[in-house]
Each structure stands twice: as C-alpha cells, then as structure tokens.
Design a protein that fits this description.
The protein has about 300 residues and is α+β, with helices and mostly antiparallel strands. The protein folds into two domains: about 80 residues, Orthogonal Bundle (Arc Repressor Mutant, subunit A); about 210 residues, 3-Layer(aba) Sandwich (D-Maltodextrin-Binding Protein, domain 2). It has nine helices and ten strands.
Length: about 300
C-alpha cells in the first residue's frame, strides 16, 4: 500500500478547487494567476502524492472523479480555515480591521441597520462587515459553529458559552387598521385589545412568542390559517383590515410608519417591549472587536433622543 506523504500543498488544493469550479484548465489557471502548465503540473503532483486520480481529462471537458469530488469538499474547508488563520492574525495586529460577520434576526435587521450603518462606517472604517439574516434558532446555531462572529437578537438567550451585552430596549406598539375604533385614541392599554384578531409571525420568530406573552392575559383570537413570514406582511395585512398586531418601535418609524391604512398607537401602563443584545462566543478571538461594535451601536441608539430606550 502506498504511503501518503504529509507535504500536500495548500496552493495545490486551491488550484484543484478552482478547477472544480471552472471545469476548464485555462480558466482555472487564469483565475489562479498562474500558467496552465503550472496549474496542471501541480494538480498532477497532488494526485501522485495522494495516490489517486482526482481529475478525468479529455479534450472536450474536465470532470472530477468520485474521490476528487470528496477531496474538493474537504479542500474548501481547509482553505476556509487558512483564510480564518489570516483573519485571526490580522485581528490581533489591528483589532479594528478585517472582516466581521454579523447576524441579525429579521425583525431587527431591516430597521436597525439604516440607523447604525453610518456610525459604524465612520467610527470603524477599517472593518468589513458581512451582514447575515437568520431566525433566532438558526442564528444561534451559526454563532455556535463559528459562521457568525456577532449575533444581534432579542433576549432571553438560552445558550451556554456566550457573552451577552445589552444594546437597547425597544417598546412594542399596537398596529391597527386606520378606521379601527381604537385608532381614535392617542395611546392604548394591552387590555384594550381584548377580543381582537391578533395577527402574528410564523413559528421560529421570537417576536411571535413575545407578542403572545404580552397578550397572554387577555382574550384574543389568532387566525389558524395565517402565519406571516415578515413584519412587512403583517403590516400590510393589518392595513387591509384583517386584524391587529404588535410592532417593535423601529419598525414603525420612517419610512415604515407611512403605510397607507395603518394606525400605530403606543401601549402604556405597562409599556411592553423587548431588550436587544449583542452576543458572541466567549472563545471568539475577535471579542475586543465585537465589543467595540456593540459600543458603537449602543451609543448610536442612545443618541436617538428616546426613540428607543438605552440600557
């Protein structure tokens, strides 16, 4: 049995991945900034080192063997880890540079990002922010697996191994059809929604659970044939007169607060709401960077003159 040497080249793995994606030696070489003979020779050397054929070569097309496909899948992960090592080193050299992956839940992302993006670019100009959107469960999973550096979501978070930093408190407002009897009042109590049809997000959205908790002590009806997938769907359904809902305050401000046919009223005595926080793995080497991002977000929200409550 042939012994596989340990001298597999990272560069050769990169050439193999490029070939797998381009399916053409010339295009793969151009993408890798080397000559075609160099790329071909490196892949041939890799095959000799591994003792298996990775590529089926013909004049018409390039195909990977079965083992070649498996090697490519693993090579991609190796290359990702190599890139991560580079990011790690750069992060230690300059914590406020490099790429940071931020995940947000859908009821926060579209409304918070326009508020904080200018401040983040101005105060942390060397950071490249990659923004992702997931529901709470998948977002926490991505955080645990290292696919996300910072998650911005609503508390509570029931997962070990995380640092949590509160960012701001956000009240809920009642959203009503414009002609609704309650729309004539300047503000409402939760008990005023007694007997109403309450429209909610689908399972998996934490805002659904929070709205149910707020309205848990009054008699409301949730239609069983309707589950919205976004706040924008909820907004339009309320405006069409089907029912009422609760919206986080940022989702009621411009330009979102101008929905025709929609009336939004504050809720008081008590004022329901949610706490928004940043969370990240305790073991994340970029914790100082993440804390700085959280600081900028918290200060930006504090400067909004009470549109949301600072913490």
């Amino acid at each position: 049995m042939k012994t596989i040497t340990s001298g597999v080249s990272i560069r050769a793995l990169g050439y193999l991945v490029a070939l797998a994606e381009e399916r053409h030696f010339g295009r793969a070489a151009e993408r890798s900034f080397v000559s075609q003979p160099t790329l071909s020779a490196q892949i041939k050397k890799l095959e000799e080192q591994l003792g298996v054929g990775l590529v089926e070569r013909s004049q018409r097309r390039v195909m990977l063997t079965d083992i070649g496909e498996q090697v490519v899948a693993r090579a991609r992960r190796v290359l990702q880890e190599v890139d991560a090592i580079g990011e790690l080193a750069r992060g230690y050299q300059d914590p406020l540079s490099g790429e940071v992956r931020i995940g947000l839940i859908p009821t926060i992302g579209p409304y918070l990002l326009p508020v904080i993006s200018t401040a983040l670019r101005k105060k942390l100009p060397r950071l490249r922010l990659l923004l992702l959107e997931h529901q709470t469960g998948p977002l926490l999973e991505a955080l645990d697996q290292g696919d996300v550096d910072l998650a911005i979501l609503a508390l509570p978070v029931n997962q070990e191994g995380l640092d949590i930093e509160p960012l701001y408190d956000e009240p809920f407002l009642a959203a009503l059809p414009a002609g609704h009897r309650l729309s004539q009042r300047p503000h409402l109590k939760v008990s005023d929604l007694e007997g109403e049809t309450l429209l909610l997000l689908a399972d998996g959205h934490c805002l659904r659970d929070q709205a149910l908790d707020v309205c848990g002590k009054i008699d409301v009806t949730e239609p069983q044939d309707f589950r919205a997938t976004s706040l924008e769907t909820l907004r339009q359904m309320v405006a069409s007169g089907i029912g009422v809902t609760l919206l986080p305050k940022l989702a009621t401000e411009r330009p979102y607060g101008r929905t025709p046919g929609l009336a939004v009223r504050p809720l008081r005595n008590p004022e329901p709401g949610r706490r928004i926080a940043g969370t990240w793995r305790k073991t994340n080497p970029r914790s100082p960077t993440v804390r700085e991002i959280c600081r900028v977000i918290r200060e930006t929200m504090e400067q909004r003159n009470g549109s949301v409550r600072s913490v």
